[in-house]
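Format notes (please read before filing issues)

Several people have asked whether sequences and structure tokens are stored in separate files. They are not. Every record keeps both together, in the order shown below: the sequence lines, then the token lines. Line labels are part of the format and must not be stripped during preprocessing.
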Amino acid sequence: MGIDEQTFTLDDANELRRAIGESVRAIRRTETTPEGQIEVLGFLARDGAYSIAALARLRRVRHQTMRVTVADLEEQGLVARTPDPADARGVLVALTDTGREVIASSRIRRSTRILAAAERALTPSERAVLAQAAAVLDKLTAALHADGQ
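Then the structure lines:
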């Protein structure tokens, strides 16, 4: 049976979940910036400014926890608070230029590690499969998001 004809089973799904989790944890272990802070910077880089409450919901943490995270990021010059034009009492948190540089260098560093590991550990045909994996995982993620709606 060719690879296109293989059945994807519950055991395969479990192994995929495990492998993705292990890969993510291996990549995160080398970061010097705490993962919660990197994740907040990533949200802001992808989507633009957010309120502290919205960031807390995205990260699934308490508002007070996010307030501390934002204060730490602000102290480092990575984010800035600005008035929320839709809510006179509210503030939005946005990336600074320094924050954009930090998230960009983090992404490059992580991607470089993945590339180096792939070149070191995988055969050319395995790297070819990996080259297709992002598009497949994006489709899978979209389906998972749709299931959660």
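For reference, the curators noted about this record: The first helix runs from residue 10 to 28. The chain has one domain: 8-147.
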